Amino acid sequence: MEKLIFIELNIFPDMKSVVFNGVALPLITSLFLIFVYPKPAEFIYRHVKMNQRRLKEIQQSIDDESPISKEQARKIRREALENQLKYEAEIDSKTSENIRLKELVAELQMSLNTDAETRSSDGQRADDVVENNPDIKNIKSSESESSAELSHEQYSKTERLNNRFKDLFSSVSSFHGFSQPRSVNELPLGENDKYYSAVHTLVKQLMNSGESDDTIREQLLGVGVSSQMINRVYSGINNKGGRG
To answer: What is the mean pLDDT of residues 228-233?
Structure first.
């Protein structure tokens, strides 16, 4: 409170003092700092920085002309020698590792060649035994002939079976025109019962002929009967007593 009274009585005693001390002087000071002060400040800043740069150049030139001490020289030589020893040791280590790897590759290659020669020799010996032993040759020939006869017999059996039930297969195939297999629900309503009856008759005939269920399913799928239809027919046959 006393400070405010002092300011009011000594700095702003009247309106003239208020205008001069409160407005004119602050405005003049602000304009001086904005427009006048930067010019001499720029000159002084440039002069100081140029002096600092000259001092650094002088210091650098003196350092470049000054020889290093013996202690510093010994330290540099010692570090250079240590780096050289480390480099040579690393080279020796890499060279030894390369030699070891080459020896390992050579051993593996030799092992592979030995195994190949052994298998070739065993195969050649087996061929020689077969060629020199008439009994073995006869057994191999008999096995080949038996396999051929068995395959021919199976084919003939399948062929006879297909010819025997050719009409039934044709009847089943006619419902879908040899197109992709279709379920009963995809046929017209009037053909559902006929289609089921045809498949049912064919399955019963194949069962009575002694065919296995897997064979029957394969043959039905081959003529376009869907798995859904096959399962439905089998379900109906099993409910009525299975194979006849």
So the answer is: 84
